[in-house]
User: Fold 23S rRNA (uracil(1939)-C(5))-methyltransferase RlmD from Salinicola lusitanus.
Amino acid sequence: MAMLGKRRTPAVRRERQVSPPAPAVAAEAGTLVIERLAHDGRGVARDGEGKTVFVDAALPGERVEVAIHRQRKRYDEAHVRERLSDAATRVEPPCIHATRCGGCDLQHLSVAGQREHKREVLIDLLGRQGIDAPEDVAILQGDDAGYRRRARLGVKCDAQGRVHLGFRARGSEQLVDIDSCHVLAPALTRLLPRLRAQLETLEAPRHVGHLELLLTDAEVVTVVVRQLRHVPEDEQRWRAFAEREALACAVRRGRKATELVWLSDQPRLVTTVSGSRRPISLALAPGDFLQVNAHINQWLIDTLRDWLASAHDDSLLDLFAGIGNFSLALAEDAVRITAVEGSNAMVERLRDNARLNGLDVDALQADLSDPGETVDTLIAEHDTVLLDPPREGASAICRRLAESGVTRVAYVSCDPASLARDAALLLAGGFVLSRLAMADMFPHTAHLESLALFERPARCGRPRRRDEDHDTPASGGRH
Assistant:
């Protein structure tokens, strides 16, 4: 047991070499013409019998020879064997790992094309709920390179004892080794080769699950090592690495119940956002939620401030408030702000951040997935509600808001399908979808964030759903 997880020579290894998964099917499907993009960015075509085929890395208008790698009852999945024509929006991927790494799956599409596609996805998903988007759907955009200030890198040892560091291949558990990353902040991507070299010096690299990288203000780089089993010798090696590279380093020990232990001097991790009158400093800890794209995060704050500008006399209730990203940035724009978060640790961090910035914000803990009397009371006491829920959305909260006297709901969403479902609940309660923006938080990926403003009819007229305009039911039907 003393050698478990440590390096051994290939002669004594008993592990099987991991190889890429073989396609379930290798059938030819002939020549197809790509009609459009699916929500996930794959090309969509129809075969000779009218069956839907999703084609990896194909763009609308392109003629492609494909091979089917997975057959299903209602559709097939395929990859391109040969591209016979190129779409005008096709570009050369800017990253050398684009064809293998599963992190950025839209690099073959121009950045302008990516953003228009995401805008259309947002509008389409709302339409499937019978909701017409406003005529002007804003696009919040920034740099498409070097924007990621946090990332998680997988670590794996193969049967020959080689250490692999990188991201997962698309649709696979296999790691793709990377030594550079087009979207990672420069200070983090420069560290990649040195991290790989460091992993190769460890006594037991198999006990490293992954590495978390974080870049905060003042170019402070933090590396958190997910240590599945305590290896004192390796912690000493990480301590020396942190000193040599002038960065902060911690280990998160354990498999289920984990413990964070700093190997370097514990840094003061801070991110700054712009308030209406001054910068707002937000202290955080490893594992706290932080938007990966600082520029787009500020765009969201500024857009919210603009959309809610006429509500300076309103009270604002920030639900899913985290460390105070929105509530503290907007604190000087409202007469009263209450922030609610499900995590006790986050509530304490938010309170500390309010004190740090001299802001008067009430911070409370409550279960927002199953809200009770406390949340109902808070909703009744506020004019405007801001939601920033996780991917599953906030359906329980939106049902309560639909029956409340709240006049405005601003909704920051990281999943457009959840937003569309929750928007239908709000419109059923008499709200109007008055403003909408697509936020390109993750350029070169199919992932999109969005920001929506819902208002009571007294502010902007009666809500309109498509099923009120047409005789056919509002349902959503195609892939």
Notes: The radius of gyration is 25 Å. Residues 111-128 form the longest helix (18 residues). Residues 191 and 245 are 9 Å apart (CA to CA). The mean pLDDT is 90.
